[in-house]
Design a protein that fits this description.
By secondary structure, this protein is mostly helical. It contains 2 helices and no strands. It is found in: Cell membrane.
Length: about 140
């Protein structure tokens, strides 16, 4: 079995690893989208409650009600900060997975290029062998 054919198996395994890394990257990016949406929702809720507090404040609201609503708004702000930290963690994970995918992609590409080079060399060797056989046949014929 030719070396290039044997290395084709290695290339296939490298492609599988690359595909797995690409799937992991897609999953991380999907989770990052989910986390970003949560942050947007928290910001929207906070804005809604701030608007509610302004509206109720203009109409006259008890101090106790104002404190409860303001406390809830503060909790939303704290949650948004924690959510941002979570998002930052997902961004770091995304970069790690992207780096891994790029490494595997380059490795597979290098293997493919090496196999192409070997295939060309194998063809050249076969051509030389064929030419040698043809030359021998021709020289035998004219003897």
């Amino acid at each position: 079995m030719k070396r290039s054919v044997r290395l084709g198996i290695v290339e296939k395994l490298a492609k599988q690893r690359e595909d797995q890394a690409a799937q992991a990257l897609a999953q991380v990016r999907a989770q990052l989208d989910v986390e970003n949406n949560r942050l947007l929702e928290l910001g929207q809720y906070r804005e809604e409650y701030l608007g509610y507090l302004d509206q109720q404040g203009a109409l006259g609201i008890s101090m106790q009600q104002w404190r409860r609503t303001q406390g809830f708004i503060d909790q939303l702000a704290d949650l948004a900060q924690r959510q941002q930290i979570t998002i930052d963690g997902w961004h770091a994970r995304e970069q790690q997975v992207l780096d891994k995918w790029q490494l595997l992609y380059q490795r597979r590409k290098n293997i493919g290029q090496y196999i192409d080079k070997l295939s060309i060399e194998e063809v050249l060797v076969e051509d030389k062998k064929e030419q040698k056989v043809i030359d021998e046949l021709i020289s035998q014929r004219f003897r």
